[in-house]
Amino acid sequence: MADTVREQRRFVVGELYSHEEIYRSLRVGNAGGIRFSAEDNGTVRRAAVFTANPEVKMPFENPYQDRVESGVLVYTGTGKEGHQQLVGPNRRIVEQGGASGFPVYGFALIASRRDRTVGIRRWRFLGLLQFLRHYWENQIDSRGELRRALVFEFQILNEFDSVVPAYDAELYDELRKACVALIQEEDREIAGPDTGGSGTDGTGEDPVRLELIRSRMLVMSPAAFEVLVCLSLRRSGFEHVVTTPYSGDGGVDVRATAGPAMWPLRGLPLEIQAKRWSHTVGRREIAELRGSLRPHARGAVVTTSHFSRAAVMEARAEGKDPISLVDGQQFAAIIHRLGIDPEEAR
Hints:
CATH topology of the largest domain: PUA domain-like
Helix content: 25-40%
Distance between the termini: 57 Å
CATH class of the largest domain: Mainly Beta
Radius of gyration: 22 Å
Mean pLDDT: 86
Low-confidence stretches: 1-7, 56-63, 195-201
């Protein structure tokens, strides 16, 4: 009877659950940020991923820069200190993106465990998760030291009201097929220094300082990040720098004109899309910006995150107006060289 009750529990998207309800119903482990349920032969049956938004975590306990944005969960792999490795739970999550995928449940902590005003149900069910990509980036660990961290991005599959664990494999299989069909293979790969999509190499700056600056930008509001982009443009010699009315539609966020110091380009209009994102900027965002540009304007995308290979290919596509790309490391280096404190944009 206990097994029947446990298997028939229904996880409703947006509802809250206790830690015990989750691990008992899903038959996963009771500790760790990534937990698995396996068959007798070792095959993974399902997994659960536990995350916390920056606002509710304790940095020394949880240094991860996890975030849910635009239907994507950005999730740092296991390991609070030192360089992470693609082994154990981290490797198993990558396997979820293969042909033998398994359901992954996503849960987000709504309040610190020290917050006594919240009851035992403090884990919100996000939905099932589909692995999109993984990559390495610099992060600051729980000791305040720079380390190489493994970052996963999951598409949140929540086109349903609830999930019953006894039937999650069938539901997941149906949802993942639709998700995979919508994403180009090139959009699953992060652009590296050789493709011009990453500033992690060649900036000439202290990587610890750059990551601290990028971390501060990541906690800014999108509107404040646009102001920061404006400040950097003005100090670089651009004129008539303004933000456009905020709409969140993926179009132009900042407009400027090249100033006298850029004499060969003086008067050239520049239109920028500012992405205060943790997740990867893909091909679609580049194409949307190009379609929003006014005649004769040059376009650019400035982000706190990374670009996919497909985004770089789209930005450089022959026969189309080129789009300049500036990623998080590059922009952190720019504002550092310009002597800008991110707090100036608040």
